[in-house]
Design goal:
Blueprint: H1 2-14, H2 30-36, E1 46-51, H3 63-69, E2 74-80, E3 98-99, E4 106-109, H4 119-122, E5 127-131, H5 141-155, E6 159-163, H6 200-209, H7 218-223, E7 226-229, H8 240-243, H9 257-266, E8 275-276, E9 287-290, H10 295-305, E10 310-318, E11 324-332, H11 342-355, H12 365-375, H13 379-387, H14 393-410
Parallel strand pairs: 1-2, 1-5, 2-4, 5-6, 6-7
Antiparallel strand pairs: 3-4, 8-9, 9-11, 10-11
Amino acid sequence: MKRLFTIFTLIFAFLPAFGQAAKAPKVMLGIDVLEGMNFSPLAKKRVGLLTHPAGVNRNGRSTVDVLHRAKNVNLVALFGPEHGIYGDEKADVPVLDRIDRRTKLPVYSLYGKYRKPTPEMLKKIDVLVIDLQDVGSRSYTYVSCMIRAMEACFEQGKEVIVLDRPNPLGGLKVDGPPLNPKFKSYVGMLQVPYVHGMTIGELARWAKGTKGALEITSKAQANGKLTVIPMRGWKRSMLWPETNLNWVPTSPAVPTYSAAVGYAMTGLGCQIGNFQHGYGTEYPFRLLTFSGKTPAQIEAALKKANIKGLRYIKTSGKDRKGRKVDGLYVIVSDWNALRPTEISFHLMRIACEFNGGNIFANADKNKALLFNKHTGCEEWWNEISRKGARADVSRFVERWSRDAKAFQAASKKYHLYK
C-alpha cells in the first residue's frame, strides 16, 4: 500500500496534466500542418525524410507512414539519427545503412560511417524533410544531426523543410552554461545555453541566421533554402503535458516526459562523480543514489543546498535485473522558480563531501573532456577540480542566468510563437 501511494505521489508531483493523453491534442504539429496543406511544399519533388520513432503526427501515426502513403508525395529515401530510424539502437553505437522493412526505401544512417549526408546520398532527393523530437537540452544529438544535414543540403543546393515540434520544457525556460566554441562537438553543436528554450524549428532558423553556426561557406549558408512548417496551437508557456500529445520515447534513455525533465536536471551532475540518477530503473534521471549513502543522507545534503523549485521523496525502483533500488526522487515543485541545471553542480560538490575528498582532482582526462563537451565550458570543471566540496555553485549559476537572459533576448527574432 505504501509503494502504491508513492507511485501516485510521483505521478502527480509534476504532471498536473496526467490523464490528458485521452483528450484531443491541443497542438497541430508541423507534420499535421503540412498534411493540412495537402503537402503542397513537396509537390513534384523527390523527398528524403530524416526522422525517428518520435516523429509522429498528433494522432501517433508515423511521419514515415504519412508521407509514404500520401498520393502526391514522392518519398524516395529515409535518413536515421542516433538510435536509428526505429529507436532500437544503443547510444554511441554506430548504425548501419539498411532497407526499411516497411517501405522498402533505403535508410541512410547519419550515426555510423557518416554524421553528415554525403553528396551521393543527396543525389536522389530534391528536398530533405526533417521531423525530429528534441528534449530541450543542448547535449542531445538530434539537433546536431539536423545541423549536419542542413550543412550538407545547403552545400549541394538541396532544400530543407523542418517540421516543427514542441520543446517539452516549454519556450520560456532558458538556463545553464552556454557553449564555448572550444567544446563544440556532436553532443553540443550550437552556442546556446544548456536549456535553450527553443523549438527545433527555431533552432534551425537561429543556425541559418547566425554567423559561424554552420560549418560551411557564408555563401552556402546565405543561399541555403530553409523552410520551417510551424505548429498551430503551441504557446511558449506550454510544457509537454499541456499539449495533450502522447509522449513517444525519443531514445532508450528518455522513455517518458518525466525523464526529459530529469535529463535537464541531473544529466550533467551524474555523468562523473559517483552519483547515479536512476537510469535503468522506472525513474530515469529522477532517482538519485550514491553508494554507501542512504536516501535520507542525500536528501539532507540537497536540502542544505536550498535549490529553489525542488523537493524530494524517498522511494524505491527496480533495475534491469529486478533488483530493488532505494533512492531519492527529485520532484519539481515550482517550475517557474527552478533553474533546472543547478542541481547537477550541487551533486558534484556533494559527491566530494560524501567521498571525503576531491574525486575530480585527478579524474581521467578523457572523461573530463567529455564532461566539458556536455557542459559546454571548462570554467566549472576548473572550479570543482580545484576546490571540491568548497566549489561556489551560486557564482556560476548566477552568471549563467545572466548569459541565458541575454541569449533569450537576442534570439527572439528567430521565435515562431508568442
